[in-house]
Amino acid sequence: MPFDPKNVIELTDAALAADYTRVRRAASAIVRELAKAGDEKAAKELRSLVRKRGVPLKASGYVESLPVDAKSRLPLLEEQSWPDVPVFLNAEANRIFHDFLRDVQHVDELCAKGLASRLGLLLSGPPGTGKTLLAAHVAAQLARPFYVVRLDSVISSLLGDTAKNIRSVFDFVPSRDAVLLIDEMDAVAKLRDDRHELGELKRVVNTVIQSLDNLDSHAVVIAATNHPHLLDPAIWRRFPYKIELGLPDVDVRKDLWRHFLFEDRDEAKISNELAAISEGLSGADIEAIGLTARRNALLDNRPLDIASVVSAVLHSSSDKSALPRRDALDADHKKHIAQSLKEHFGLSGADIARLLGVTRQSVYGYLKQEAEAHDGG
Ligand SMILES: Nc1ncnc2c1ncn2[C@@H]1O[C@H](COP(=O)(O)OP(=O)(O)OP(=O)(O)O)[C@@H](O)[C@H]1O
Ligand SMILES: [Mg+2]
Protein backbone atom coordinates (compact mmCIF):
# COMPACT_ATOMS: atom_id res chain seq x y z
CA MET A 1 0.00 0.00 0.00
CA PRO A 2 1.71 3.21 -1.11
CA PHE A 3 -0.33 5.52 1.10
CA ASP A 4 -1.60 6.01 4.58
CA PRO A 5 -5.12 4.48 4.93
CA LYS A 6 -6.04 7.42 7.15
CA ASN A 7 -6.02 9.70 4.11
CA VAL A 8 -8.23 7.35 2.11
CA ILE A 9 -10.74 7.19 4.95
CA GLU A 10 -10.69 10.97 5.26
CA LEU A 11 -11.13 11.31 1.50
CA THR A 12 -14.14 9.04 1.47
CA ASP A 13 -15.72 10.70 4.45
CA ALA A 14 -15.22 14.16 2.97
CA ALA A 15 -16.59 13.10 -0.42
CA LEU A 16 -19.75 11.72 1.15
CA ALA A 17 -20.18 14.94 3.12
CA ALA A 18 -19.75 16.94 -0.14
CA ASP A 19 -17.01 18.93 1.52
CA TYR A 20 -14.65 19.95 -1.27
CA THR A 21 -12.21 21.59 1.06
CA ARG A 22 -11.57 18.37 2.91
CA VAL A 23 -11.63 16.31 -0.30
CA ARG A 24 -8.89 18.52 -1.74
CA ARG A 25 -6.84 18.41 1.42
CA ALA A 26 -6.99 14.61 1.75
CA ALA A 27 -6.27 14.14 -1.95
CA SER A 28 -3.32 16.54 -1.73
CA ALA A 29 -1.90 14.47 1.12
CA ILE A 30 -2.17 11.39 -1.10
CA VAL A 31 -0.48 13.29 -3.95
CA ARG A 32 2.47 13.99 -1.67
CA GLU A 33 2.68 10.35 -0.65
CA LEU A 34 2.52 9.15 -4.25
CA ALA A 35 5.26 11.59 -5.21
CA LYS A 36 7.37 10.45 -2.29
CA ALA A 37 6.86 6.82 -3.33
CA GLY A 38 8.10 7.76 -6.80
CA ASP A 39 4.80 7.28 -8.63
CA GLU A 40 5.00 10.62 -10.49
CA LYS A 41 2.43 9.62 -13.08
CA ALA A 42 -0.32 8.91 -10.59
CA ALA A 43 0.70 11.93 -8.50
CA LYS A 44 0.39 14.16 -11.53
CA GLU A 45 -3.00 12.80 -12.50
CA LEU A 46 -4.38 13.18 -9.00
CA ARG A 47 -2.90 16.66 -8.66
CA SER A 48 -4.69 17.86 -11.75
CA LEU A 49 -7.95 16.35 -10.43
CA VAL A 50 -7.49 18.19 -7.15
CA ARG A 51 -7.20 21.45 -9.07
CA LYS A 52 -10.47 20.95 -10.91
CA ARG A 53 -13.42 22.98 -9.83
CA GLY A 54 -16.06 20.77 -8.20
CA VAL A 55 -19.63 20.44 -9.44
CA PRO A 56 -21.54 23.39 -8.00
CA LEU A 57 -22.89 22.01 -4.76
CA LYS A 58 -26.22 23.68 -5.42
CA ALA A 59 -26.84 21.15 -8.21
CA SER A 60 -26.55 18.37 -5.68
CA GLY A 61 -29.10 20.08 -3.46
CA TYR A 62 -26.45 21.25 -1.05
CA VAL A 63 -26.44 24.93 -0.27
CA GLU A 64 -23.03 26.25 0.57
CA SER A 65 -23.46 28.97 3.13
CA LEU A 66 -21.31 31.79 1.84
CA PRO A 67 -21.77 34.99 3.77
CA VAL A 68 -24.18 37.37 1.99
CA ASP A 69 -24.81 41.08 1.97
CA ALA A 70 -27.47 41.95 4.54
CA LYS A 71 -29.60 43.91 2.08
CA SER A 72 -29.04 42.46 -1.39
CA ARG A 73 -28.49 38.86 -0.20
CA LEU A 74 -25.71 38.54 -2.77
CA PRO A 75 -22.66 36.54 -1.70
CA LEU A 76 -19.77 38.66 -0.44
CA LEU A 77 -17.18 36.09 -1.44
CA GLU A 78 -16.50 33.89 -4.38
CA GLU A 79 -14.59 30.63 -4.32
CA GLN A 80 -12.14 30.42 -7.21
CA SER A 81 -10.33 27.38 -8.48
CA TRP A 82 -6.60 26.86 -8.31
CA PRO A 83 -4.73 28.19 -11.33
CA ASP A 84 -3.76 26.15 -14.37
CA VAL A 85 -1.33 28.82 -15.58
CA PRO A 86 2.12 29.08 -13.99
CA VAL A 87 3.05 32.47 -12.60
CA PHE A 88 6.25 34.09 -13.83
CA LEU A 89 7.99 36.38 -11.37
CA ASN A 90 11.23 38.28 -11.20
CA ALA A 91 13.83 37.02 -8.73
CA GLU A 92 12.90 39.42 -5.94
CA ALA A 93 9.16 38.69 -6.13
CA ASN A 94 9.86 34.98 -6.30
CA ARG A 95 12.02 35.15 -3.19
CA ILE A 96 9.32 36.89 -1.13
CA PHE A 97 6.66 34.48 -2.47
CA HIS A 98 8.70 31.49 -1.28
CA ASP A 99 9.61 33.08 2.05
CA PHE A 100 5.93 33.70 2.63
CA LEU A 101 4.98 30.10 1.80
CA ARG A 102 7.74 28.79 4.03
CA ASP A 103 6.59 30.94 6.96
CA VAL A 104 2.98 29.82 6.50
CA GLN A 105 4.02 26.18 6.44
CA HIS A 106 6.07 26.58 9.61
CA VAL A 107 3.72 28.86 11.48
CA ASP A 108 3.29 26.51 14.46
CA GLU A 109 7.00 26.18 14.96
CA LEU A 110 7.48 29.94 14.61
CA CYS A 111 4.59 30.68 17.00
CA ALA A 112 6.04 28.38 19.62
CA LYS A 113 9.25 30.40 19.60
CA GLY A 114 7.43 33.72 19.43
CA LEU A 115 8.81 34.36 15.95
CA ALA A 116 5.68 34.27 13.82
CA SER A 117 4.51 37.40 12.09
CA ARG A 118 1.06 37.92 10.68
CA LEU A 119 0.45 35.91 7.53
CA GLY A 120 -0.51 38.97 5.52
CA LEU A 121 0.75 39.47 1.98
CA LEU A 122 0.22 42.68 0.06
CA LEU A 123 0.36 42.52 -3.74
CA SER A 124 0.57 45.74 -5.68
CA GLY A 125 0.94 46.47 -9.35
CA PRO A 126 -0.82 47.70 -12.48
CA PRO A 127 -3.77 45.76 -13.98
CA GLY A 128 -2.97 42.43 -15.58
CA THR A 129 0.35 41.83 -13.85
CA GLY A 130 -0.70 38.62 -12.10
CA LYS A 131 -1.85 39.74 -8.65
CA THR A 132 -4.95 37.55 -8.60
CA LEU A 133 -3.02 34.72 -10.26
CA LEU A 134 -0.25 34.85 -7.68
CA ALA A 135 -2.76 34.82 -4.82
CA ALA A 136 -4.36 31.72 -6.35
CA HIS A 137 -0.92 30.11 -6.50
CA VAL A 138 -0.46 30.74 -2.79
CA ALA A 139 -3.73 28.89 -2.13
CA ALA A 140 -2.75 26.04 -4.46
CA GLN A 141 0.68 25.66 -2.89
CA LEU A 142 -0.89 25.49 0.54
CA ALA A 143 -3.67 23.18 -0.73
CA ARG A 144 -6.25 25.50 0.77
CA PRO A 145 -9.47 26.73 -0.83
CA PHE A 146 -9.26 30.17 -2.41
CA TYR A 147 -11.84 32.84 -1.67
CA VAL A 148 -11.92 36.27 -3.22
CA VAL A 149 -13.75 39.25 -1.83
CA ARG A 150 -13.93 42.53 -3.71
CA LEU A 151 -13.81 45.14 -1.05
CA ASP A 152 -16.03 47.53 -2.97
CA SER A 153 -18.82 44.94 -3.03
CA VAL A 154 -18.69 44.71 0.74
CA ILE A 155 -19.16 48.42 1.20
CA SER A 156 -22.84 49.09 1.52
CA SER A 157 -24.69 52.39 1.53
CA LEU A 158 -25.52 51.60 5.13
CA LEU A 159 -22.51 51.89 7.35
CA GLY A 160 -23.85 49.36 9.86
CA ASP A 161 -24.20 46.83 7.05
CA THR A 162 -20.67 47.47 5.83
CA ALA A 163 -19.23 46.62 9.22
CA LYS A 164 -21.43 43.53 9.45
CA ASN A 165 -20.33 42.46 5.95
CA ILE A 166 -16.67 42.86 6.76
CA ARG A 167 -17.04 40.90 9.95
CA SER A 168 -18.93 38.07 8.31
CA VAL A 169 -16.25 37.72 5.61
CA PHE A 170 -13.51 37.54 8.19
CA ASP A 171 -15.47 35.08 10.35
CA PHE A 172 -16.04 32.77 7.44
CA VAL A 173 -12.49 32.34 6.19
CA PRO A 174 -10.82 30.69 9.19
CA SER A 175 -13.79 28.32 9.44
CA ARG A 176 -12.75 26.96 6.02
CA ASP A 177 -9.02 27.13 6.60
CA ALA A 178 -8.91 29.12 3.39
CA VAL A 179 -6.76 31.71 1.72
CA LEU A 180 -8.62 35.01 1.48
CA LEU A 181 -7.83 37.53 -1.22
CA ILE A 182 -9.12 41.02 -0.58
CA ASP A 183 -9.18 42.48 -4.06
CA GLU A 184 -9.26 46.23 -4.65
CA MET A 185 -8.04 46.92 -1.15
CA ASP A 186 -7.89 50.60 -2.06
CA ALA A 187 -11.70 50.76 -2.38
CA VAL A 188 -11.92 52.03 1.17
CA ALA A 189 -9.54 54.84 0.45
CA LYS A 190 -11.54 55.82 -2.62
CA LEU A 191 -14.55 56.47 -0.41
CA ARG A 192 -12.72 59.58 0.67
CA ASP A 193 -13.82 61.55 -2.36
CA ASP A 194 -17.34 60.12 -2.43
CA ARG A 195 -20.38 61.31 -0.63
CA HIS A 196 -19.15 59.55 2.50
CA GLU A 197 -18.00 61.47 5.51
CA LEU A 198 -14.50 61.16 6.81
CA GLY A 199 -15.71 59.75 10.11
CA GLU A 200 -17.58 57.03 8.26
CA LEU A 201 -14.50 56.11 6.27
CA LYS A 202 -12.45 55.89 9.43
CA ARG A 203 -14.91 53.47 10.93
CA VAL A 204 -14.79 51.20 7.88
CA VAL A 205 -10.99 51.22 7.99
CA ASN A 206 -11.14 50.45 11.69
CA THR A 207 -13.46 47.52 11.14
CA VAL A 208 -11.04 46.07 8.57
CA ILE A 209 -8.14 46.57 10.96
CA GLN A 210 -9.98 45.03 13.88
CA SER A 211 -11.01 42.06 11.77
CA LEU A 212 -7.41 41.55 10.64
CA ASP A 213 -6.24 41.77 14.24
CA ASN A 214 -8.81 39.23 15.42
CA LEU A 215 -7.76 36.57 12.91
CA ASP A 216 -5.94 33.62 14.35
CA SER A 217 -2.28 33.18 13.60
CA HIS A 218 -2.91 30.53 10.90
CA ALA A 219 -5.15 32.72 8.76
CA VAL A 220 -3.66 33.67 5.42
CA VAL A 221 -4.89 36.97 4.05
CA ILE A 222 -3.70 38.52 0.82
CA ALA A 223 -4.59 42.02 -0.28
CA ALA A 224 -4.26 43.30 -3.84
CA THR A 225 -4.23 46.87 -5.02
CA ASN A 226 -3.43 48.93 -8.09
CA HIS A 227 -2.91 51.98 -5.89
CA PRO A 228 -0.73 51.07 -2.91
CA HIS A 229 -0.15 54.74 -2.08
CA LEU A 230 -3.87 55.13 -1.32
CA LEU A 231 -3.80 52.57 1.47
CA ASP A 232 -4.09 53.68 5.04
CA PRO A 233 -0.72 53.24 6.80
CA ALA A 234 -2.41 51.23 9.55
CA ILE A 235 -3.62 48.71 6.95
CA TRP A 236 -0.26 48.77 5.21
CA ARG A 237 1.45 47.74 8.45
CA ARG A 238 -0.76 44.71 8.84
CA PHE A 239 0.72 43.10 5.74
CA PRO A 240 4.34 42.34 6.61
CA TYR A 241 5.03 40.58 3.30
CA LYS A 242 4.88 42.79 0.24
CA ILE A 243 5.35 41.95 -3.41
CA GLU A 244 5.45 44.62 -6.03
CA LEU A 245 4.35 43.20 -9.35
CA GLY A 246 5.40 45.89 -11.75
CA LEU A 247 5.16 45.47 -15.50
CA PRO A 248 7.24 42.39 -16.37
CA ASP A 249 10.95 42.88 -16.99
CA VAL A 250 12.69 41.46 -20.05
CA ASP A 251 13.38 38.02 -18.47
CA VAL A 252 9.80 37.61 -17.29
CA ARG A 253 8.51 38.74 -20.69
CA LYS A 254 10.62 36.02 -22.28
CA ASP A 255 9.04 33.41 -20.01
CA LEU A 256 5.57 34.77 -20.81
CA TRP A 257 6.14 34.55 -24.58
CA ARG A 258 7.58 31.09 -24.30
CA HIS A 259 4.58 29.92 -22.33
CA PHE A 260 1.67 31.71 -23.97
CA LEU A 261 2.87 31.74 -27.57
CA PHE A 262 5.11 28.68 -27.83
CA GLU A 263 3.40 26.41 -25.27
CA ASP A 264 6.72 26.10 -23.40
CA ARG A 265 8.66 24.94 -26.46
CA ASP A 266 12.19 26.23 -26.48
CA GLU A 267 12.11 28.99 -29.07
CA ALA A 268 14.86 30.90 -27.33
CA LYS A 269 15.82 33.27 -30.12
CA ILE A 270 12.35 34.45 -31.05
CA SER A 271 11.23 34.59 -27.40
CA ASN A 272 14.24 36.80 -26.66
CA GLU A 273 13.47 39.12 -29.50
CA LEU A 274 9.78 39.38 -28.65
CA ALA A 275 10.78 40.10 -25.05
CA ALA A 276 13.09 42.85 -26.22
CA ILE A 277 10.41 44.65 -28.21
CA SER A 278 7.50 44.25 -25.77
CA GLU A 279 8.52 46.51 -22.91
CA GLY A 280 5.45 48.09 -21.32
CA LEU A 281 3.11 45.15 -22.00
CA SER A 282 1.60 43.36 -19.01
CA GLY A 283 1.41 39.60 -18.60
CA ALA A 284 -2.27 39.77 -19.52
CA ASP A 285 -1.40 41.66 -22.75
CA ILE A 286 1.20 39.07 -23.74
CA GLU A 287 -1.22 36.28 -22.95
CA ALA A 288 -3.93 37.84 -25.13
CA ILE A 289 -1.57 38.32 -28.09
CA GLY A 290 -0.04 34.84 -27.75
CA LEU A 291 -3.36 33.03 -27.49
CA THR A 292 -4.88 34.97 -30.39
CA ALA A 293 -1.96 34.04 -32.65
CA ARG A 294 -2.31 30.39 -31.67
CA ARG A 295 -6.07 30.47 -32.23
CA ASN A 296 -5.57 31.95 -35.70
CA ALA A 297 -2.99 29.28 -36.57
CA LEU A 298 -5.16 26.45 -35.33
CA LEU A 299 -8.35 27.52 -37.07
CA ASP A 300 -6.60 28.29 -40.35
CA ASN A 301 -4.50 25.18 -40.09
CA ARG A 302 -1.14 26.86 -40.60
CA PRO A 303 1.99 27.55 -38.54
CA LEU A 304 2.16 30.46 -36.11
CA ASP A 305 2.40 33.79 -37.88
CA ILE A 306 5.11 35.55 -35.88
CA ALA A 307 4.94 38.64 -38.10
CA SER A 308 1.36 39.25 -36.97
CA VAL A 309 2.51 38.94 -33.36
CA VAL A 310 5.28 41.48 -33.92
CA SER A 311 2.82 43.82 -35.57
CA ALA A 312 0.42 43.56 -32.60
CA VAL A 313 3.26 44.16 -30.14
CA LEU A 314 4.43 47.27 -31.98
CA HIS A 315 0.87 48.59 -32.20
CA SER A 316 0.27 47.96 -28.51
CA SER A 317 2.29 50.96 -27.49
CA SER A 318 -0.36 53.22 -29.01
CA ASP A 319 -3.39 50.93 -28.96
CA LYS A 320 -3.59 48.85 -25.80
CA SER A 321 -5.88 46.25 -27.32
CA ALA A 322 -3.94 45.44 -30.49
CA LEU A 323 -4.16 41.73 -31.31
CA PRO A 324 -2.62 39.64 -34.12
CA ARG A 325 -4.71 39.82 -37.28
CA ARG A 326 -5.91 36.72 -38.99
CA ASP A 327 -4.96 37.74 -42.54
CA ALA A 328 -1.30 37.84 -43.59
CA LEU A 329 0.51 41.16 -43.49
CA ASP A 330 1.10 42.79 -46.87
CA ALA A 331 4.51 43.89 -48.09
CA ASP A 332 3.97 47.54 -47.15
CA HIS A 333 3.14 46.58 -43.62
CA LYS A 334 6.20 44.35 -43.36
CA LYS A 335 8.38 47.11 -44.72
CA HIS A 336 7.13 49.42 -42.04
CA ILE A 337 7.74 46.87 -39.30
CA ALA A 338 11.24 46.11 -40.57
CA GLN A 339 12.11 49.79 -40.42
CA SER A 340 10.69 50.14 -36.94
CA LEU A 341 12.55 47.08 -35.62
CA LYS A 342 15.79 48.41 -36.96
CA GLU A 343 15.33 51.99 -35.87
CA HIS A 344 13.86 51.49 -32.37
CA PHE A 345 15.38 48.19 -31.34
CA GLY A 346 18.54 47.95 -33.42
CA LEU A 347 17.72 44.43 -34.63
CA SER A 348 19.92 42.95 -37.33
CA GLY A 349 18.73 41.96 -40.78
CA ALA A 350 18.84 38.29 -39.76
CA ASP A 351 16.73 38.93 -36.64
CA ILE A 352 14.17 40.91 -38.59
CA ALA A 353 14.00 38.21 -41.28
CA ARG A 354 13.29 35.58 -38.63
CA LEU A 355 10.54 37.64 -37.00
CA LEU A 356 8.85 38.52 -40.27
CA GLY A 357 9.21 35.06 -41.77
CA VAL A 358 10.93 36.37 -44.92
CA THR A 359 14.41 36.02 -46.39
CA ARG A 360 17.24 38.29 -45.37
CA GLN A 361 17.30 39.54 -48.95
CA SER A 362 13.73 40.79 -48.64
CA VAL A 363 14.58 42.60 -45.41
CA TYR A 364 17.44 44.44 -47.07
CA GLY A 365 15.05 45.30 -49.87
CA TYR A 366 12.47 46.66 -47.40
CA LEU A 367 15.02 48.74 -45.55
CA LYS A 368 16.44 50.15 -48.72
CA GLN A 369 13.04 51.11 -50.09
CA GLU A 370 12.07 52.75 -46.81
CA ALA A 371 15.29 54.69 -46.71
CA GLU A 372 14.75 55.85 -50.27
CA ALA A 373 11.17 56.83 -49.48
CA HIS A 374 12.50 58.91 -46.60
CA ASP A 375 15.15 60.57 -48.69
CA GLY A 376 12.63 61.32 -51.38
CA GLY A 377 10.09 62.79 -48.92
N1 LIG B 1 3.39 37.23 -14.14
C1 LIG B 1 2.50 36.48 -14.81
N2 LIG B 1 2.75 35.17 -15.03
C2 LIG B 1 1.89 34.41 -15.72
N3 LIG B 1 0.72 34.87 -16.23
C3 LIG B 1 0.43 36.16 -16.06
C4 LIG B 1 1.28 37.04 -15.33
N4 LIG B 1 0.72 38.25 -15.31
C5 LIG B 1 -0.44 38.15 -15.96
N5 LIG B 1 -0.64 36.89 -16.43
C6 LIG B 1 -1.79 36.42 -17.20
O1 LIG B 1 -2.76 37.43 -17.19
C7 LIG B 1 -3.95 37.01 -16.53
C8 LIG B 1 -4.52 38.15 -15.72
O2 LIG B 1 -3.73 38.40 -14.58
P1 LIG B 1 -4.37 38.75 -13.17
O3 LIG B 1 -5.84 38.71 -13.23
O4 LIG B 1 -3.72 37.93 -12.13
O5 LIG B 1 -3.91 40.27 -13.05
P2 LIG B 1 -4.18 41.29 -11.87
O6 LIG B 1 -2.86 41.86 -11.53
O7 LIG B 1 -4.96 40.64 -10.79
O8 LIG B 1 -5.02 42.40 -12.61
P3 LIG B 1 -6.17 43.37 -12.04
O9 LIG B 1 -5.47 44.50 -11.33
O10 LIG B 1 -6.82 43.84 -13.30
O11 LIG B 1 -7.04 42.56 -11.15
C9 LIG B 1 -3.53 35.83 -15.68
O12 LIG B 1 -4.59 34.95 -15.46
C10 LIG B 1 -2.43 35.20 -16.53
O13 LIG B 1 -2.99 34.36 -17.50
MG1 LIG C 1 -6.88 40.91 -10.09
Automatic annotation (TrEMBL):
Entries under CDD domains matching the protein: RecA-like_protease (cd19481)
Where in this chain does the record put each AAA+ ATPase domain? 117-249
UniProt xrefs under Pfam families: AAA
Its domain of life reads Bacteria
InterPro entries given in the database record: 26S_Proteasome_ATPase (IPR050221), AAA+_ATPase (IPR003593), ATPase_AAA_core (IPR003959), P-loop_NTPase (IPR027417)
Query: Could you tell me the keywords of this UniProt record?
Result: ATP-binding, Nucleotide-binding
Which molecular-function annotations from GO does this UniProt entry contain? ATP binding; ATP hydrolysis activity
Member of which family? Answer: Belongs to the AAA ATPase family.
**The name this protein goes by in its record:** ATPase
